[in-house]
Amino acid sequence: MRVNTFFALLFFFLVSCASQKSVEPVVDYSDERSILYEVSKARKLLDENPVLALARARALRDLSRPMEQIDSLYMDASASTRSEFFRAVDNGQWSDALRIYRSLTALSIAPTEWDEKSLFEKRMGQWREAGNSTLVSLNEVQRSTPEDEAPNPGIVSKMIKGTITVWVDRGLRVKNGVGFADRVIGSGFFIDKRGYLITNYHVISSEVDPKYEGYSRLFLKLPSDPDTRIPARVIGWDPVLDLALLKTEIEPSVVFQLGSSEDLKVGNRIYAIGSPAGLEQTLTSGIVSAQHRRLLSLGDILQIDAPINQGNSGGPIVDEAGRVQAVVFAGIEPFEGLNFAIPVELLRIILPALYDGGKVSHPWLGAWGKTAGAPGASFTEGVSVVYTIPGGPCYLAGIPPDAVITAINGQTVKNLEQFQSFIIREKPGTIVRLTGYVGEDERGERVDRQWYVMMTDRPEIPGQEIFERDEQIAALLPVFGMKLDRIGSSRRYTISALVRGGIADESGFSENDVVEIRDIQFPKDKNIVTLQLFTKRRSKGYLEAFIGLGASLDSPSYF
To answer: Among 116, 236, 318, 455, which residue's beta carbon has the most beta carbons within 10 A?
Structure first.
């Protein structure tokens, strides 16, 4: 009996230890030993990742007292980063050279014999030599035309020839002992004479998602020969923006031109081409119903009322001249006319990365925040940093919670949406200069600050990473919008702060409410977290109640 009890206690101890996550340690910039430890860590990065070593050296320089070891590290990291830049130039790696050059420019130490224009021209020449006319013409933006007219029948006939059906065979799906054919049908459109085409990521996700373990085969069907299945392969994909670049070995007769939806206004007429329910060569029309919808984690999308059905996903939204203005990606079936499309500007931003191949990585500052501005005010003044993830880029750069960011690389930022539109144009591994302020001094004037932050790869599920790298109670701030202070040693807390418009705020919680956390769950493959509380809410007359809250582990408020 004693032996069994011993092993039971041992098992419980091991399970408990295994469930404990390692929370990122806090860097003490006032302690010399802590600073020297950070210096040694940064030095180890000089050969492997000199840009990161440079970012860490700059943060140590800005946040610590003057030290010879820090100055030496900064000089060595600067030299290593410049060497990395010239190595990229010598090897013709122009995208990497641009990333490093922009990092050096942010720190005002860029080599004077180069500039961004020259590097862009070199990259353009490389694309031209490879025969990639699509990327070469990316900057030749043809604006949308606002006329509310039907497209010329000749244009319609031509564009339909450049639109194809994307067909993914996923074998059999067994339900109640009976096998059913599992097919995913979408649309796509050619953008390159060499056989490259665009569709939605969710249409072809089984081809590249490592979590998918079943059978999957990708084919295309042309309008001219819908009975023939043409093999294709996935070149690049972006799960965040739901876009993918495919390649087939046929030469399309028609290639779409990418327009610009920046001039589109609510009420302008647009046209959708695709294969709803597998019916090829279908053209539907409608108007732009709304702009700047925040349904994706990054970037704004268009709301349209053109009829969209299953099978339209990945098809083009065009203007009356046949230029692509957006890519269909979603419709809400119970609500007729409530459909959404990804603006072509977002496709333009990631298209070079799609051609490079593989999964597209987006930049990440490791923070969660809101647009800064007084409640009810008609103007905004930047981005308020509510939370920074321990060990993340903003945290390492010394950006404190409640800081307000007003500019990035000298470009003024008015709100979170504008800030993200600047960020998404950068590449992970780039150092950016953030300008802002942290509170007020004794005279009531803002304390202006500058931070140099090296952006890393955006995690697939930001909220999940926060729970893995921070204490659960601290993670409730960005996920549910409430900051908790512990009462004694139990699981009881008081709400010390609420984020206006957050889940807790909209659920009727108030500051100083007492809550007791009963359970936190992460339903498998749902990308959400559920929280069960026992509480006495002031707004409800302090009546005792069990409350269940749910939240997505991703949102447009992460950056």
So the answer is: 318
The β-bridge relationship of strands 142-143 and 259-260 is parallel
Confirm whether 151 is domain-assigned: yes
| Helix, strand, coil percentages, rounded to 5, for the chain | 30, 30, 35
Q: Quick check: 499 and 511 in contact, CB under 8 A?
A: no
Give me the CATH number covering residue 406.
2.30.42.10
pLDDT attached to residue 308: 80
Which has the closest alpha carbon to 96: 76, 121, 123?
123
Buried b (16+ CB within 10 A) or exposed e, 266-289: eebbbbbbbbbebebbbbbebbbb
Which residues share a beta bridge with 234? 246
Structural domain of 204: 142-358
Is 294 exposed, middle or buried, given 0-12, 13-18 or 19+ CB atoms closer than 10 A?
A: middle
Instruction: Supply 96's token pair.
Output: 């990497």
- Is 242 noted as a catalytic residue in this protein? yes
Q: Are residues 346 and 368 in the same domain?
A: no
| pTM as predicted | 0.87
Residue 176 CB contacts under 8 Å (≥ 6 apart), including other chains: none
Domain harbouring 319, CATH code: 2.40.10.120
Can you give the pLDDT at residue 253?
86
- pLDDT computed for residue 200 by the predictor: 96
d(CA 52, CA 110): 16
At 135 the pLDDT is 94
CA distance 520 to 533: 9
Q: Which of 242, 300, 470, 554 is catalytic?
A: 242
Q: How many domains does the chain have?
A: 4
The amino acid that residue 201 corresponds to is Y
For the chain, 559 residues long, the average pLDDT of each consecutive 10-residue run is 44 40 67 91 94 96 93 97 97 96 97 95 95 89 60 74 90 80 91 95 94 91 85 96 95 89 81 79 83 83 84 88 87 66 93 96 95 71 93 93 94 93 94 92 86 95 92 92 87 90 89 89 87 81 81 92
Which pLDDT does position 139 carry in this prediction? 82
Catalytic residue among 144, 313, 384, 557: 313
Indicate the residue among 327, 358, 389 that finishes a domain.
Answer: 358
Contact 311, 277 (CB under 8 A): yes
Specify whether the backbone of 6 is left (phi greater than 0), alpha (psi in -120 to 50) or beta.
alpha
pLDDT for 25: 63
- Listed residue (513, 451, 440) closest to 480, CA to CA: 513
DSSP β-ladder status, 217-222 and 358-359: unpaired
Q: Check if 384 is active-site.
A: no
- 313 carries an active-site annotation: yes
Token pair in block for residue 394:
């903003």
- Residue 51 inside a domain? The answer is yes
Question: According to DSSP H, which parts of 130-258 are helical?
Answer: 133-136, 153-161, 201-208
In this predicted model, what pLDDT tens digit does every residue of 476-504 receive, in sequence order?
999 999 999 998 777 889 999 999 889 99
> Is 328 a member of any domain?
yes
Residue 132: how many other CB atoms lie within 10 Å: 19
| Choice among 202, 216, 300, 557 that is catalytic | 202
